Amino acid sequence: MNTAVEVRGLRKNYGEVEAVKGVGFEVAPGEVFGFLGPNGAGKTTTISMLCTLVTPTGGTAHVAGYDVVKQRDEVRRNIGLVFQDPTLDGYLTAEQNLRFHAELYGVPKEVLGDRMRQVLEMVGLWDRKDSKVMTFSGGMKRRLEIARGLLHSPRVLFLDEPTVGLDPQTRSAIWGYIDKLRHSEDITIFMTTHYMDEAEYCDRIAIIDHGEIVVIDSPEALKASVGKDRVQIQTGDDERAIGLLKERFGVDAAVREGQVTFAVASGEEFVPRLFAGLGVPIRSVSVSRPSLDDVFMSYTGSTIRDAESSGAGNQWMRARAMRGR
Amino acid sequence: MTTDVVRVSVPRASGGHDLRAIKVVLHREMLRFANDRTRIVSSLVQPVLWLFVMGTGLGTLVRGSIPGVDFRTFMYPGMISMTVIMTAMFSAGSIVWDREFGFLREMLVAPVSRGAIVIGKCLGGAVVACLQGVIILALAGLVGVPYSPMLILTLLGEMFLAAFTITAFGVTLAARMRNMQSFFGVMQMAIMPMMFLSGAMFPLANLPSWLHVLTTVNPLTYAVDPMRRAVFGHLAVPPRVDAMLNPGVSWFGHRLSVPLELGLVAAIGAALLGVAVLQFRRTD
């Protein structure tokens, strides 16, 4: 197996709506690969196709060397899944949930006990194995799902927004497990996220917007490709400020997240010139090094948060994709 | 951590693997049932009310026309089937619950056939319904039905078959449902007329022809009648009264045998099972 995931021209239409418009990429074994994009960009639809939950309209995809349409069961045997929404039985204990999973996946009985202990210890839930899952917090449930997703030693682990809705402490704990995993197990991790700071943990990121992959590269390379600092200012008159920035400094600015935002080569040196020459009262200013937010903005033309508020209408697509069959 | 990783290799699809899947789905149904005492009690309330309140009330009214038989004895097999049907439908309904709470997805993404999951679910519904039915069986003495081992075994077998078919019916209904409320709405709509027309509440002899046709078309009739015949076979009932309370089901003037009736129930169950599997096999 040379690639863990191999996707060519993958498409999905829901009636007239093109949720995924022909994406293609490869993920190498052992890689942590991230799909980054706003809600409604087609991340969940893509992951659902790779997990054999949704049949593609066109294109091909191979996971762990198997075709996701023609060799569905082989794909399923070799992947682990952690969804955004919990898929645990709250009336069963943590251990019973894992046993159920082990039986469905045919995990050999001789190794089950050891393996179960190992995955539960990894996520710090071994001492809670006999508690009913309904007594768990959201973070504990997510950790249990990760343990369950790993129980059958999958070659590829899919994590759909693994940290969404969790507190910062649990989020960093989950990133700790993922980091531990890549060292201890022979596993490829494919995840989606819309948190920029989390995408930085990935080896490579694909930025997806409106159902298309905009760019794929390592976080460092992507940030380097932007090259400029981001400056955001609050002014007394945003429109005039934008006009004057263009006229006097030759800078293209726009209102993002309620502030006049633009990118310049050396932000700190630009600020004094700005105060001296803009001619519009400036109330506050912030300069930031290029982050993945800027990467996202420079490739898609909007910040991820702005894209989310306009893409909110696409939520139904996710609901359709995740309907449970 | 690096050295002591326990590696698991998951086997390829095989009959043994599907069997494990069936067993674990069944096992989960049992665990859920054992943990839910409210459900055990609440699904007993209705049949017990029918049997002892309605049965006693109506019994005083009809006592004169059925000499030698307690009306509650007549209702008893009907109430066994009612218990079994209610419990089986509840079990099937848990599929909707599983979908709402996401657990269904855990089952549907597993590398096992949909058939294994649906069969496990139907067997689970059948076993749970039989366990619930055992409680009603224990009440036999109160309504003048003898505790004969042969009768108990026969009833258990018939209960199992009826419950399996009803669960398959419920799963077929539940396959398309998105929330519990609509499932229970549809379930009431389907189950109530089927119960009324099955001979569980009143004898199917001497009915107006439109009602007779409806009872003959109703599949539940063929699940209730064998139970009644089993119970009446262990009682000493005057022939005239037996003909009135236990007329059996006739097609074109021909009384159906018990094996044929049970065969019908089994065939319907198998067909519904097939439909349920097909419904779960569809993907978006």
From TrEMBL, chain A:
Protein name: ATP-binding cassette domain-containing protein
GO molecular-function term, one example from the UniProt record: ATP hydrolysis activity
Ranges where the ABC transporter domain occurs: 5-235
Coiled-coil annotated residue ranges, if any: none
Membrane topology, as annotated: Peripheral membrane protein
SUPFAM superfamilies linked to this entry: P-loop containing nucleoside triphosphate hydrolases (SSF52540)
Keyword Translocase: yes
Subcellular location: Cell membrane
Protein family membership: Belongs to the ABC transporter superfamily. Drug exporter-1 (DrugE1) (TC 3.A.1.105) family.
Entry-linked Pfam families: ABC_tran (PF00005), DrrA1-3_C (PF13732)
Gene Ontology CC annotations of this record: plasma membrane
Keyword terms, alphabetized: Antibiotic resistance, ATP-binding, Cell membrane, Membrane, Nucleotide-binding, Translocase, Transport
The keyword Translocase is annotated on this UniProt entry: yes
Species assigned in the record: Microbispora catharanthi
Annotated PANTHER family: LINEARMYCIN RESISTANCE ATP-BINDING PROTEIN LNRL
GO BP terms in the entry: daunorubicin transport; doxorubicin transport; response to antibiotic
From TrEMBL, chain B:
Entry's Gene Ontology BP terms: response to antibiotic
A molecular function (GO) term: ABC-type transporter activity
Record keywords, A-Z: Antibiotic resistance, Cell membrane, Membrane, Transmembrane, Transmembrane helix, Transport
Highest taxon of the lineage: Bacteria
Membrane topology: Multi-pass membrane protein
Protein location: Cell membrane; Membrane
Similarity comment: family membership: Belongs to the ABC-2 integral membrane protein family.
UniProt protein name: Transport permease protein
Organism annotation: Microbispora catharanthi
